[in-house]
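Predict the 3D structure for this chain.
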Amino acid sequence: MANPTEVPNANPELAGKRLAAMMLGAVGVVYGDIGTSPLYAIQSTFGEHGIYATPDNVLGALSLVFWALIIVVSLKYILFVMRADNKGEGGIMSLMALAQRGVKNNPRMRLFLLTLGLFGAALFYGDSVITPAISVLSAVEGVEIATPKMAEFVVPITVAIILVLFGVQKHGTARVGTFFGPIMVLWFIVIGLLGAASIVQHPQVLFALSPHYAVLFFIHNHTDAFLALGAIVLVLTGAEALYADMGHFGKKPIRNTWFALVLPALLLNYFGQGALLIRDPSAVTNPFYLMVPPFLLYPMIVLSMVATVIASQAVISGAYSMTSEAMLLGYSPRMQVQHTSHEYRGQIYLPWVNTMLMVMVLIAVLGFRSSDALAAAYGIAVTGTMACTTVLLLVVARKLWHWPLLVLAPLGAGLLTIDFAFFSANLIKVEYGGWFPLALGLLVFVVMSTWRRGRELVLREMKQGGLSLETFIASIANHPPLRVPGTAIFLTANQDSVPHALLHNLKHNKVLHERNVLLTVETLDTPTADSGERVELTALGREFYRLVMRFGFSEEPDVPRTLQQCQKLGLPFDMMDTTFFLSRENIVAGERTGMALWRDKLFAFLARNAMPATAFFRIPGNRLVELGTQVEI
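Done. Predicted structure below.
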């Protein structure tokens, strides 16, 4: 299925309404995180632990904010990174698959890109925990401004809101986005108008559009200017989610809403806060709220609370997309995926991921207990993911797009310099809370790499102990066993060996079915499989067939439904006369070379708790026979 925004429609009016609906959903889901950064980014830059709010410093910091949004978000992500769509799908896992395709004949480079992609994806999960925690906490802490006595109820209220937020995820990002969209549109309009009103009072702040103020900022402040990048990067948090959520809404709605609404509103508000600080440096305590007229303060606090709660939606839906891709590409154990929309294939919900994210977010809230404490952990994960994305993108641009080095070298040097500047400025946060997302990222990286390596070892063991299929079929001709009516389908990952389930069935039941099909399900490095590559059927003789089904990493691998396509190839299936046979591997950790013993045990644990292949492939339980086999790794 094509990307939702690229499906041709003969009715222009209907297509326009569809695009408008997707844009509204994108505002609600994709831009919540980056859209609420004005609440704390400028305050963190010039606050108690920030740099002095002199007019020159304000202009310099605003210049950095402006050019960061233009270069990193507008040019890098919106125009450059989102061009690297894998048949409409985005995210660092999709980008890693593209990059590996460009170096398929270079094993060492593939391994490097694999490690880089998994590390970037792992860091994104760390950000997926920090963002909801700090967003909801900062929202609820706003109540203290109106009612100081409510301070002791901040954490309990935050916990309740998080439970509700994760509870509504099962309704799908389309419905959530439709509900959140109008609120976020109002948010962007209001913060833009507030900023514009402040700029009118001090229009000289617009001088900060010139990049030379950013240069002077570093010349005059030296180390302090570099450390300030750790706060200025807060204006970019959420940029990675734009790419991760591309499969949910498509490129066009995300791009349109950024340039038409989000970017202008953000710039107006940031420059408005800067104008206020130039007029009144004491407003550094909270420039966002002090820019609001007194009669609008309470409504603005309420709107801010709602908007910051919405901010967590971008990374939550992005985590769903990334997990689904990792699972089908073989980097994550199988788990349940619910498709929440019949119209848009990218709309998914993963109950297990939702539960684990909720638990980790609650741990972060109860452990740090304030947005100030969490701010120390914010930024390091997202800047690390940004750097990984840049490297992968440069490989794609060189190997797949064939961009000349004369263009790519200066572009890559510029983007990487910016990424590593922000990342290194955030490294000082490790001691003060930055360890938390790094620890989460390391845990996810270990799980993903262990699962990938474990599956490789299992396949290696099964191939080494397997019986040659060609030899087996020849022996059947010489010593034919009893044949029973019907079709037997044996799921196997090794097409050259006899499946263990087939050998066990023949050994214990002393029979073979009239027709035997060896089925292998492959996942491609593209989101969808083309119709011509979906099914490949090969006759092996003696009523044995080799059948290969191919699915993209964003598709639902429905085996029974895909079997219907075999009728066109001359091999019709009657599901009432077909039995599926599957070998269920019992993984045993051993002393063999391959992985450390603790990783063998971790893989065995993951394998035991993974979703059964039969359920994952939609194989009906009443047509299934499972035979166990022990595999030592």
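Confidence is low (pLDDT under 50) at residues 1-10.
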